[in-house]
Amino acid sequence: MSEVLANTSKGHIEVRNFSLAYETIEGPVQAVTDTQIHVRPGEFVSIVGPSGCGKSTLLNAVAGFLKPTTGIVTVDGERVNGPSAERGMVFQQYSLFPWKTVRENVEFGLKMRGMPRSQRERAARTLLGLAGLEAFEKHYPEKLSGGMKQRVGIVRALATGPKVLLLDEPFGALDAQTRVIMQQILTNMWQRLKISVLFVTHDIDEAIFLSDRVYCMTARPGSIKAEIPIPLERPRQQSMMMSSEFLALRRGLMSLIREESLKAMGGEINDMGMQGLNIELHGHSLADVI
Amino acid sequence: MSSPALVRHPEYSMPVTAIAEAGPAPAVTPPATPPSFGTLALRWYRLNQGRLRATAIGIASLLAFLLVWHLLTTYRVVFFVRFTNVPSPLAVYASFSKAIHDPKFLMHILLSCRRIFIGFSLAAIIGVPLGLIMGRFKLVHEIIFPVAEVLRPIPAIAWVPMAIMLWPTNEQSIVFITFLGSFFPILVNTLHGMSLVDPVLVRAAQCLGARERSIFREVYFPASLPHIFTGLTVGMGVAWVSLIAAEMISGQYGIGYFTWEAYSLVQYADIALGMIAIGVLGLGSSLLIRGAGQLVMPWRST
Questions:
Q1: A87, A162, A201, B221: least buried by Cβ within 10 Å?
Q2: What is the CATH classification number for the domain harbouring A68?
């Protein structure tokens, strides 16, 4: 196992002076502007924000799929120039290869690295065992439930021993119960591997429950509105979600996001509608919370 | 290997490994005694009721078709359509039992099959890789696609005179017509398959360390396979259409020529025999392709 998951507890992500614009016929559209974030080695960091704020854009830039318009993305001081096995990625749509069995999916990264068949088979079995999937190694992904698919997705991303794990709303398509279990599994794997995680979600509870730190983004064009440390002790338990500490963090983040969501909807909401919402919004400003 | 993080949580009684089995749990508990033959037969019947029904109706409708054919021809019905000279099923059967002992008839069939095999194989060997490359490299697509689009609507049969001029022997021109008939469906469907490859899968492969060549082999190709096989199935059908037409026009041998010759020689039963032989051969080759598809794409079979 150690040869597969050999990770030197590196994985320092830095995003500096980052902005990204899409070219359209009406000129460039700013998706993300003036953003700085960082993830320390072994840290679990989430990005939350209203839909369309560019959080996935930011993550895709860290993965190397998108080039920043300005600024720089580095991992351990090395500039990100394109996708690489050093940065494992988990997608919302699972994106398992339908023509490969569960084990072959997990083996894929090792195969690309040129590991001999017998060795990577053994490695994949070990990893699948960790995720409780050894009984399904010969199944094709189509036969699996959503939760199982995403466990395979996570295991596949971790198989090559990446420095960082990037997750783009990985549990967004799962039902609430499965989601809770998946969060626990992810936490578990993260603690075991001491890997840096950058996690994009729109679920505030999920962000707080999982993270050491949460970045909250503004409405489009997205930038960092707030950085909220999550001082909840680990290991975390489901019951913590009822604690006053958790609820206070939740209220704070909720109001931040609601502010931005309203901004994003902009003109759609007139004064009449805003008044009721504003009262509630100012009732729990972030200052009260932290 | 248990997980320390989970063990410490009393409210998390379900260990990670147990979650997997919580999925599709086998619902059937084996009974203490093995079920009797009767019970098994009854169960099998219940499970396959729909399929049995379809088979039974299918057989009945084929028999009805033969009966109607028989009646129409024995009574030489003339009602807009003239059945005066149409051979009866029994006459066709008689000529069939004679033909299977006739080496000439078998040679006709063998030759047609050989033409299909060569023409279709060439179309697949050229069409599939070309489609894959066109789907991946824009420049190749931009260069070849316009030409293909101009040539594609021309039916293969319209190529017959040109083919006779192009190729030194009759045999070659017939194979060429067969090739043309199947080439375009194969090319177009392969291209279509390439255009539908999920870009997220390509991204997934990239961040697992796959380079261009591996992405092509491990993602684009298998992702396009279902459409490639659609193209092969359609291409096989068109190959037969083109072959029969070419054989009727310019052939000396082949099942298409056999059918046409039967008409010229007033061997009416042989016309129907030729037609049925063509139908059976076409069906057989489609089944072969479907079987190959299931072998190549095990993830698609249920």
A1: B221
A2: 3.40.50.300
